[in-house]
Amino acid sequence: MTESVCDLRSYMAVAEAAGMLNRISAPHELADVAAALERSDAGPALFEAPKDSPWPIFSGSVSSRRTAALALGCEPGEVVDRMGHALEPANGVATARVEAAAWHDNCVTGDEVDLGTIPIPTHSRGDGGAFITGAVSVTVSGRGNLSYNRMLMLDRNILGFNVNEWRDVGTFMRSRPDPEAPFDVALAIGLDPAVMIAAGVRTPVDELLIAGALRGRPVEVCRGVTVDVDVPARAEVVVEGRIRPSQRADEGPLAEFHGYHGEMWPSPTVEVTAISWRHSPVYQTIIPGWYEHVFIGNVLPREPLLRRFVRHIDPHADVHIPPYGNGFLAVIQIERDNPGTPKNLAMAALAAHINIRNVIVVDRDIDVSQPSELHWALTNRVHWLDDVFTAGDAQGHEMDPTADNRGVSTKVGIDATYKRERREYGERVAYAAVDLQKYLS
Ligand SMILES: Cc1cc2nc3c(=O)[nH]c(=O)nc-3n(C[C@H](O)[C@H](O)[C@H](O)COP(=O)(O)O)c2cc1C
Q1: Ligand 1 pocket mutation, candidates 38, 62, 149, criterion most atoms within 8 A of CB
Q2: What CATH number corresponds to the domain at position 335?
Q3: Closest CA to 59 of 24, 92, 85, 83
Q4: How does pLDDT run across 169-225, given as a tens digit for each residue?
Q5: Rounded distance, CA 361 to CA 153, Å?
Q6: Which of 2, 90, 93, 148 is the most exposed place for a label (fewest CB within 10 A)?
Q7: Is 133 a pocket residue for ligand 1 (Cβ < 6 Å)?
Q8: Is the CB of 293 under 6 A from ligand 1?
Q9: Whether residues 319 and 284 fall in one domain
Q10: d(Cα 213, Cα 200) in Å, to the nearest integer?
Q11: Does 198 lie in the same domain as 61?
Q12: Structural domain includes residue 329
């Protein structure tokens, strides 16, 4: 059935059939409810009548391994394999250009443009305003690129457009003969989760090819109405415009991937030239600084690389980057056969990606999806003098809250496996899982 997913609507139908779509009919504090659903891995949320919004709002498309598996039509244990396959450049599937897009149903351009048409939420109490957080920015410079950029609504046709200088969009703009000239962008909102996942990947190829590889067929794209950009043809909403590198405005703060509110930033602005949308559109948002944000940006694109690194040492090791660890924490799971291997695995994991700072190596009997299980292993299997090593003054992400403003911090490897040679214990206490509904009246 997941083979039929080609847009947000077909994904919602698949989620509903699997009993994983949470329909919320009464108006609610959208971000609080969506965040609670993500925290408990309950599946995506569809707010049917959100406050101050004429359109339904969808959130939590891919916020966990379980939802990623639903989106990709595989088992949760196969998600890393599916990502690894799609990230190989040779497996990319080129897009297919079509003439008619679903979002051709409605279109306004020029003076008619009003971002107030779109129900852009203010998500968190600490946010600096209404931010578009779940749009995929499509840009072109020789090749196409997908990215996420937080965008603050500044006026009826102006957005602040956050872009870290070293992102591909920044490089695209700087490499032009006139780096300050306006630059075409299309913001696609309400998408097939395969496109959402691909947009979180940082790679020197067009990420639409990765989305095609995830689906095993081309993503259909259609040329923008006012910009020379090919946009996913089955998006719910498309905002077109021109990024103005020389016309900057302060935007922020917004909840960041590391779980704090980020700073104000003098960002380029986007002058919006067209807004298009499907009949009965669904607006899609990502709750900033929360599970989906981290899962798309820091977990799915990195686990295949992390696994490749640690499998040099143990070909059967499995990897997990839990979303609540913000991409700084990696967990390696093994069948321990040698007292030294866990620390070698931790060293390999720390080298796999600059963001990885804390590595915990655990045995197979730990359910790594449960933070309480990791805490149990840390509490009962770690001798803190012997089982831990640190690497001071190591380079990490410049926004790592433990690092200085260059991103220099201390990395740590923790062997939380059971050391039978140290002291013998019996079996771990275990009780069978039960369906409580059957027993509670
Ligand atoms: C929900 C979400 C929001 C993001 N917001 C921003 C942002 O505001 N600015 C930015 O530079 N990167 C942001 N990122 C990171 C990148 O856009 C993204 O991971 C992408 O892969 C960048 O790749 P590129 O260098 O190939 O363009 C965000 C990522 C996610 C998942």
Answers
A1: 149
A2: 3.40.1670.10
A3: 24
A4: 999 999 999 999 999 999 999 999 999 999 999 999 999 999 999 999 999 999 999
A5: 44
A6: 90
A7: yes
A8: yes
A9: no
A10: 15
A11: yes
A12: yes
Say whether pLDDT at 166 is over 90.
no
Does residue 1 surpass a pLDDT of 60? Answer: no
Q: What is the distance between the alpha carbons of residues 192 and 377, in angstroms, rounded to a whole number?
A: 38
Please tell me whether the overall predicted TM-score, pTM, comes out greater than 0.85 for this model.
yes
How does residue 3 score in pLDDT terms, banded at 50, 70 and 90?
A: low
Range of the domain at 316: 302-415
308: amino acid identity, one letter? R
From 296, 313, 328, give the residue that closes a domain: 296
| Residue with tokens 């060293």, as numbered in its chain | 347
Decide whether any atom of ligand 1 lies within 6 Å of the 287 Cβ.
no
> Which of 145-149, 239-243, 405-409, 433-437 is predicted with the least confidence, judged by mean pLDDT?
433-437
Order across the sheet with 388-395: list the strands. 318-320, 329-334, 358-363, 408-415, 388-395
State whether the beta carbon of 201 lies less than 6 angstroms from ligand 1.
yes
* For ligand 1, mutation pick of 138, 143, 148, 302 (most atoms within 8 Å of CB): 148
* Tally of structural domains, the chain: 2
Residue 433 lies in a domain: no
